[in-house]
Amino acid sequence: MALETITTAGPRTAIDRYRQAEDALWRRYGLAPTERFVDLADPRCRLRIVEVGSGDPLVFFPGTMVTGPAWAPLVRELSGYRCLLVDRPGEGLSEPMAFVPGRYGETVAAIGRGLFDALGLARATVIGGSIGNIWALRAALAMPTRVDRIVLLGGGPVVDELEVPGFIRLLASPVGAIMVRLPFSHDRARSMMRDSGHGASIDAGRIPAELIDWLVAFQRDTSSMRAERDMVRTVVGRGGWQTGLTLSESDFRSIPQALSWIVGGADPIGSVDLWTRTAARIRHAEVHVIGGAGHLPWLDDPSQVGDILRRFLAAERN
Questions:
Q1: Which of 14, 208, 288, 293 pairs as cysteine with 264 (C-beta 3.0–4.6 A)?
Q2: How far apart are CA 241 and CA 85, in angstroms?
Q3: Beta-carbon contacts of residue 194 (< 8 Å; ≥ 6 apart)
Q4: Phi, psi (degrees; rounded to nearest 5) at 189
Q5: With contact defined as beta carbons under 8 Å apart, do 305 and 298 qualify?
Q6: How confident is the model at residue 66 (pLDDT cuts 50, 70, 90)?
Q7: CATH 3.40.50.720 fits 14-314, yes or no
Q8: pLDDT at residue 317, as a whole number
Q9: How many angstroms separate the CA atoms of 90 and 97, rounded?
Q10: Under DSSP, is residue 228 helix (H, G, I), strand (E, B) or coil?
């Protein structure tokens, strides 16, 4: 069904408020998405998919607080493609599910296969952001003939060499239970964006007010961050990442698809050097650095990221 502006008079529910914030952000970028819910059997979960455009399919797997309309600046640059934006379990309007420690990689691979089947996708490109990079890579490994190409945006927990970011470690700790229940203000949303490397864009007005409003609604009006904490506690251990999350050397070497990795020069997650060395393990990989961009590089320069993506998607296959 179409995502429509909430016009009902009287008090709104939390989900109504969240949908209103989503709708305002979509309208900010002139986009009119539709949504559907899919029920997967193994593992059992109910996921929301937001769809924009038509053409060759692109499946987007988000990171923490990057679901739904947070992709809008990039989606606007990708006319001529069918953009399928996944709310991960517990994120946005998808229902939560319990992840099992040590089995995260195989679980997300199974979800990827189920999604492709439920959406009737014979073949599609996968696009990840942050921990969504794991989802994109695991889907590619699980479906080598159905995943056409891979796009990774920003750093993510794909190698053990990456230290667990402080925010994620804190979220997994007992303090995290308090964090996810604290009132979430616009100032805190802007501070979080600055901590993610987007301070220059905030100061320059490149991060619209509608995005900050949406971030506040995401935290305040959905249970997303509580579900995210539950998930994080299954992938973070005392010594770093839990077994079953990151990829091995043989995993990287066995990826057959072409891969484009777009990272921000100001991304605090990992480093350009780490992601360049990691990409070098993949047979057909390229790395692009967006100078001054943060963890979500398309928010800082959607035009440049969109141009890189369009050229990558249009390139002839080897």
A1: 293
A2: 26
A3: 202
A4: -65, -45
A5: yes
A6: confident
A7: no
A8: 62
A9: 7
A10: helix
